[in-house]
Amino acid sequence: MTSIERDSPLPLYYQLKQLLAERIAIGELEPGDILPTEEQLQETYQLSRTTVRQALKELEIEGRVSRHRGRGTFVSQPKIRHSSEPHFSLTDALLQQGIQPSWRVLSAEWVPAEVDVASTFDLEPGTPVFRLRRLRLTNEEPIGYHIAHAAPAMAASIDKSQFHSGGSLRYLRGNDGLLGSYANRTLEAIGASAEAADLLDVEEGSPTLLIRRKVVSRDGAVIETLQAMYRGDRLQYQIRQGPDTRTGN
């Protein structure tokens, strides 16, 4: 497709999306390149603002482009691949793909537990819990926003020297508090909140992958919870399964 065909049964927004997607696919627009502005696209293809915005939104949902407030729309970088394999952290995945991971600490403090956090830890609301807010960075670019809460029983395990390095649980490896523990995770696709969008440098409502993690001790007590929001244009989560004898797959 090289132009908009107004007699085509294909919607105009879809045609524009395909035009831009093809330019990305053939390398005419490379990762990190800025796309023409909405006004330029309107003028070039004689389309309405609504049509142009819908095309760009579709490309964003598909992860082909990312939109940054005040800066424009850019061709997305290749997605980071992370799998669900045991003992293979996101830090390991980043290093394996030649990407340097790091953290930026936003806050690290004891705070009164809100109702939902208190309920998770089986505490009275208002009981002090440790909260750690950080940005996950790749080559200094923010791709994830983490909010972790640790139970009061983990106070002796908190290692402040590890806030800026390693995996997301390294800060709790100060003693044997994690020995024998296990983690439950849930994944959900959501739009970026205003706070997350500001921290991740994307438009509010942009696709994000929300990962909720609950770490449980060997005796069944919840010792840490994590809510991590990752940019949908930067992270791809792979789930591997063994053969299914019922389907032959």
Question: Which oligomerization state do the chains in this entry correspond to?
Answer: single chain
CATH class of the largest domain: Alpha Beta
Q: Which strand-content bin applies to the residues?
A: 25-35%
Shape: elongated
- Structural category is alpha+beta
CATH topology name of the largest domain, in short, is Chorismate lyase
Q: Characterize the biggest β-sheet.
A: 6 strands, antiparallel
Distance from N terminus to C terminus (CA atoms, Å) equals 36 Å
Count of structural domains: 2
| Order of H and E elements | HHHEEEHEHEEEHEEE
CATH architecture of the largest domain: 3-Layer(aba) Sandwich
Distinct helical segment count: 6
Give the key terms:
6 helices, Chorismate lyase, 2 domains, elongated, disordered C terminus, alpha+beta, 10 strands, Arc Repressor Mutant, subunit A, 249 residues, 6-stranded antiparallel β-sheet
Written account of the structure:
- The chain has helices at 12-25, 38-45, 49-61, 90-96, 115-121, 194-200, and strands spanning 65-68, 72-75, 80-83, 101-112, 128-138, 141-150, 182-191, 207-216, 222-231, 235-238.
- It is an alpha+beta fold.
- The protein has two domains: 12-75, Winged helix-like DNA-binding domain superfamily/Winged helix DNA-binding domain (Arc Repressor Mutant, subunit A, Orthogonal Bundle); 80-238, Chorismate lyase-like (Chorismate lyase, 3-Layer(aba) Sandwich), CATH 3.40.1410.10.
- It has a six-stranded antiparallel β-sheet with strand order 4-5-6-9-8-7.
- β5 (128-138) and β6 (141-150) form a beta hairpin.
- The two termini are 36 Å apart.
